[in-house]
Each structure stands twice: as structure tokens, then as C-alpha cells.
Amino acid sequence: MKQEKWMSLLGLAYRARKIISGEELVVKEIKNRRAKLVLISKDASLNTSKKIRDKCTYYEIPFYFVESREKLGNAIGKDERVVVAILEEGFAKKLTSMLDE
Question: 43, 91, 92, 90: which is closest to 63 by C-alpha?
Fold first, then answer.
């Protein structure tokens, strides 16, 4: 059940246009410090995963791993997504608390 909760919140954030997806765009938002939270799918390639983790660590942006690219994509009503960034503090905080459970 917990899973569906974060997914519907992610969907809400997406509809509010507070989410960006796609590796290059996410990296850009991290560099501009606009990303408040980054979600990476556990099945992302090692290369992508490392690149995003390193950027997040360097710019001190929290990140979480989620089950799969399918789940990440489904949550925002898209095809598979490997990485998404949440651009709004409120959504980021709420998602963090849900994913910490």
C-alpha cells in the first residue's frame, strides 16, 4: 500500500508541473539546485545511476532509489522513467517522509 501512496503523490506533483524527468534534464536541475529530491530507479544502468548519485552528492541533493523504471513512469503517467527530479520543497518533503517509512 505504501508504494501506491508515493506514486500518487508523484503523479500529483507531475500534474502540478513540479517534476522533471530524463537524465540530462535532471542533471541540469541538480546543477541549478532547483531539484529538491531525485528518484532513481533501481534498474537504471550503473553508469546513469552513478552519474546521478555523484551529482546529487556533490550538490547535496537528497536521492532515493525506487523499485523500477516502470513504477516511476507509471506514477507520472508516462512510459518507463529511469530518473525524475522533484522541483518543489513541499512535494519533496512529503515524498521523503513516505519513502522513509
Answer: 92
Distance of CA 79 to the CA centre of its chain: 15
Question: Residue 1 pLDDT more than 60?
Answer: no
Secondary structure of 54-100 in HEC code, one letter for each residue: HHHHHCCCCEEEECCHHHHHHHCCCCCCCEEEECCHHHHHHHHHHHH
pLDDT digits (tens, 9 = 90+) for 91-100: 999 999 999 8
Asked whether the predicted pLDDT for residue 82 surpasses 90, the reply is: yes
